Amino acid sequence: MSDKKIWIQTELTCRPLDTLEEVSLFLQDPPAWRSLCKKIIPHSPNAIRNCDVNQNFGENILETPQSFCHYEPETEDIDVERHDRKKLPKTLVCHDMANGYHDDSYVDGTGSSDAYTLYHWGAVDVFCYFSHHFVTVPPLGWINVAHQHGVKVLGTVITEWTSGAALWERILASEQQSQDFASALVAIAQALHFDGWLLNVENKISKPQQLLQFVRQLRQSLHRELEAPLLLWYDSVTVDGHLSWQNGLNHKNKAFFDASDGLFTNYSWSEQDVRSSAELAGERVGDLYVGVDVWGRNFYGGGQFNTQQAVQVVHKHGCSLALFAPAWTHEALSEEADDVNSVVSAQELDQYDKFLLRDRALWCSLWPFLCTKLPDHLPFQTSFCRGQGKKRRLYGEVICPVPWYNLRHMQYQPNSALGPHGYLLSTRDNILGLSRLGLLQNKTGILRCRRSLKENSKVEFAERTNSEVSITVKTDSLTIITQEETKEVEITSNDSKSSTTKTKIIDVLRNLFRAKGTKITENKSGAMKRKLSLDAEEKRELIDTAEEIQRKDSTENEIHEISGRSMIQMSVNLRLRDKTEKTRYALAYVSGELQCLEPFFEDSFLGGSCLKINPSDEVCTEHRHSRLFHCDFLCEESLIACVVTKRMLGHEDQFLNVRLHLQGNSESYKKAVLVGRDIPRGHEHEQATAADVVNLYPLSDADDAHFREMQKYMVLHEPDFYVSVANAYGWRVRYYQLELPQSRVTSVSVQAGLPQGPVLLGHFGLCARRVPRSTASDE
């Protein structure tokens, strides 16, 4: 009997190139997966400045971030201003995670459904894959998912130490060798359809003028061979060949800035460095990418959850942002309770959910200072899959019953889904203090404290060096105890005396969240006074909160004694700090508070996840309108919309309406509502509920002649867009037709039909429908 022959396939992986010889071999035998690389999908030439979305929000405080995921319907009627993207600062994400090439390097993916991925693509303009290999070739998954979201992709060329100096000696030995290396870098980018390079020379150069000429040659070649490429120079080597990080743009590195498409600065800058760099860049200030290290190593503000402090400086001076290593949210996550990178009170969350919470908290804090790109390419469709999941489904049917991860199968992500739901971010001492007191379980109290930070009036603490504060409340006053003295604060309310104690407790909590040390002001009698006015709803909720606190802090009405005084004790050991000190913030989980648009991995229509739309929750009962996308889709003649939803167990009556916000149509409609249920009997001719709103009911009945006509059009002209309305797995597929020629869809939002109960959104799509033109032969 002959031996069996075993068929073996070499696993497709994406790898870096560590030598000039490996670069040469790549050109001779490019990787087989190059045919899978996709070109960038253009987006609108306009974009939104996120700071314009919530114009009346007020000051951006880290502990009380803005909500971009839901909105008040009356304010949404005022469209957010669009700006020319070329005139706006850009955001570059430099992905550095444990030297790269992990699960993301496998073309066919892995089984690690909890591996890191970036999904905030709406505010990213450039993605750079970074490692410490000589030539870092971006993996296929990152190229495709970034390009799908209109984001340029850069590889990295880095040299370090004496080995790096030796490499450049070879490259710059002659003009021909220099040109050969430049041509090789262009050819690699061409073969894999990515958009350029980051040059990072971290070693001394003996021939700095030849290096400068190489940068010019490489830029010229890239712009000759690629469409809209990008070559960035990292702030390292100076024009005299010395390795000397300038932490900005100045005369020592401006020649490299002039020879390239932009400068990526080092991270140890001061605000004066940013200011002077912006002035020197002049009209090219948008090409100045100020480096911001999320890990916070020797860095302004300390990074991590305080990264916002540095980003505000970059935003203030109109520079572009180079955000380095935002995967810190995944890589640094700790399970140790006393670690600042753990999530407090998150026992019910698994490790991946904790990462998602940390990641959302970081990006939510940065979002107001970024800009959002607008998809405008039709057809547009997404099932919201994040390129990973517990199972994989096709139209609801399980086709892979095991966990999986493959970045290139991520679909288009919402670009306005961030909001501070489900977490509390504050200084480490505050979070731990609240946790010890059990206040993180009191959801209403946490929310009221977070909202109260937005008020203008403040109680201000005296600045002290290395002192601790113990805050206590008794029946008629607040006591602040430091190591040096005790001060009593009288707090009055416009309410009756019976609720005074309750409002004092909330007033104490208000100040627990304040990160900056401030000063106490005293009246002539030596007592510090503050009036607190509350509306009826606040008073009711705060009374409930205070009573809960009292129940937890006193057993059988036991009164604790401090310094001979009778009081309800709340000791929070809050360390007062200097304003320039780098603050470490911690994150706490708030159970029961739900995201408006929650990634849902237990079911999906296509891929590994869908969106769970939460119209309200046990903490916030208001019926929310949630944004999916800011966009810029042109309806030349008419549009076909596809919406796929699924009801959840226990909420079978729930349904989902999708709102398209419109501009420029002759009928003066501002909204088209895609109603998520069949047209009620007797209302067949109903079109609008208001003068500026048109209601559209689904065309999904196989017996309907209008639907059959639409179905035929999609099958013939948009076969990749069409999804069958027949589904055996509970998903309801609905189609709509919008006939408003020359109108623009400027945003897409959703609202559940009922104020309570979730509903799943599995798929959304838009495509153009054009009336066939008659030809001479037809006549």
Would you kindly provide a written description of the structure presented here, covering whatever features stand out?
- This protein is α/β, with parallel strands linked by helices.
- The chain folds into 3 domains: 20-71 and 85-107 and 115-377, Glycosidases (TIM Barrel, Alpha-Beta Barrel); 423-589, no CATH class; 597-769, Jelly Rolls, CATH 2.60.120.
- 23% of the residues lie in helices and 26% in strands.
- It has 16 helices and 38 strands.
- The strands form 8 sheets. Strands 4-5-7-8-9-10-11-12 form an 8-stranded parallel barrel, surrounded by 6 helices. The protein has a 6-stranded mixed sheet with strand order 2-31-37-33-34-35.
- Strand 33 and strand 34 form a beta hairpin.
- Helix 5 runs parallel beside helix 6 and helix 14 crosses helix 15 (536-553).
- It is globular.
SSE map:
Elements: H1 20-28, E1 46-49, E2 70-71, H2 73-76, E3 82-84, E4 91-95, E5 126-129, E6 135-136, H3 140-148, E7 152-160, H4 161-171, H5 175-192, E8 196-202, H6 208-225, E9 230-234, H7 254-259, E10 262-264, H8 271-281, E11 288-293, H9 307-316, E12 320-324, H10 328-331, E13 343-344, H11 351-366, E14 371-373, E15 380-382, E16 386-389, E17 392-394, E18 397-400, E19 404-410, E20 423-427, H12 428-437, H13 443-452, E21 468-474, E22 477-482, E23 486-493, H14 500-512, E24 528-532, H15 536-553, E25 560-562, E26 565-575, E27 585-589, E28 597-600, E29 606-607, E30 610-613, E31 625-635, E32 638-647, E33 656-663, E34 671-674, E35 693-696, H16 705-717, E36 732-738, E37 743-752, E38 759-769
Parallel strand pairs: 4-5, 4-12, 5-7, 7-8, 8-9, 9-10, 10-11, 11-12, 13-27, 23-24, 34-35
Antiparallel strand pairs: 1-3, 1-14, 2-31, 6-7, 15-38, 16-19, 17-18, 17-29, 20-27, 21-22, 21-26, 22-23, 25-26, 28-30, 30-38, 31-37, 32-36, 32-38, 33-34, 33-37
